[in-house]
């Protein structure tokens, strides 16, 4: 009896070790796609998966995608650049809406919620988004990236809702393959978003810096000036505040006189 009990304990111990080993394989063997930017990630050991090359700047890449059969709702999706559709879908990457009814519009994907994972079963990277709409319902949107190096034009087979408020689509394109479109990702879009006023301010700051440094060096080493005399146009800048004050007083006096004439 003692020997049988010992054998049972040994078998249970080996079973427990096997379970721990399998759990460790599942936990640590899963691939990780580390974020690079808002729509690309680096799949460890394989390369970067980037959707910048197929992103649309002015409209969704996939407009009016039909949902499961029997549904009247459509979904629009763009991988990188946000868009706005009606009031409820403002600055989103995916929007759900009823055909012909603008009041039935719900956000599906907010950029800040994006999570990159790897689906071991289908061997593909998955972009997952969430969004909470005005009806307080939280929706989840999964985009599986199916790698096919022969596909030049991105395509999707539609969207499946399962379970409720969880939507899944598959995007097929060569850019879903690691390393294929990594070089197409723009280094930075910050310069494209600068307004004319911002550019003028930058140019003004650069001009002032060059003016001060260049003027000081010229006066100090060429003109041999010292002390406060190395400041470019020192007399002008010394008198500048008083001249501004005089100009302000002159303008105010003219406005007051005009008001007095009009009252008479």
From TrEMBL:
One Pfam match: ATG27
SUPFAM superfamilies: Mannose 6-phosphate receptor domain
Transmembrane segments: 196-219
Highest taxon in the source lineage: Eukaryota
Topology of the protein relative to the lipid bilayer: Single-pass type I membrane protein
InterPro entries tied to this protein: Autophagy-rel_prot_27, Man6P_isomerase_rcpt-bd_dom_sf
Cellular compartment(s): Preautophagosomal structure membrane
GO terms under biological process: protein transport
Keyword vocabulary terms for this entry: Membrane, Protein transport, Signal, Transmembrane, Transmembrane helix, Transport
A cellular-component GO term for this protein: phagophore assembly site membrane
Protein name, per record: Cation-dependent mannose-6-phosphate receptor
Organism: Clytia hemisphaerica
């Amino acid at each position: 009896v003692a020997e049988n009990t010992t054998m049972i304990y040994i078998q249970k111990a080996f079973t427990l070790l096997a379970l721990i080993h399998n759990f460790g394989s599942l936990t640590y063997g899963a691939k990780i796609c580390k974020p690079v930017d808002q729509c690309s990630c680096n799949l460890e050991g394989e390369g970067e998966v980037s959707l910048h090359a197929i992103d649309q700047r002015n409209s969704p890449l996939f407009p009016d995608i039909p949902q499961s059969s029997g549904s009247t709702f459509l979904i629009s999706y763009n991988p990188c650049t946000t868009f706005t559709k009606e009031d409820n879908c403002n600055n989103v990457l995916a929007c759900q809406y009823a055909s012909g009814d603008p009041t039935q519009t719900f956000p599906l994907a907010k950029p800040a919620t994006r999570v990159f994972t790897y689906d071991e079963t289908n061997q593909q990277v998955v972009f997952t988004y969430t969004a909470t709409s005005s009806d307080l319902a939280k929706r989840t949107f999964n985009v599986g990236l199916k790698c096919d190096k022969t596909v030049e034009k991105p395509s999707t087979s539609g969207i499946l809702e399962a379970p409720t408020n969880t939507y899944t689509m598959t995007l097929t394109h060569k850019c879903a393959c690691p390393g294929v479109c990594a070089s197409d990702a723009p280094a930075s879009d910050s310069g494209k978003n600068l307004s004319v006023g911002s550019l003028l301010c930058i140019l003004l700051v650069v001009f002032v810096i060059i003016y001060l440094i260049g003027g000081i060096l010229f006066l100090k080493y060429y003109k041999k000036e010292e002390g406060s005399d190395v400041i470019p146009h020192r007399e002008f800048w010394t008198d500048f505040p008083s001249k501004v004050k005089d100009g302000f007083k002159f303008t105010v006096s003219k406005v007051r006189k005009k008001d007095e004439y009009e009252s008479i």
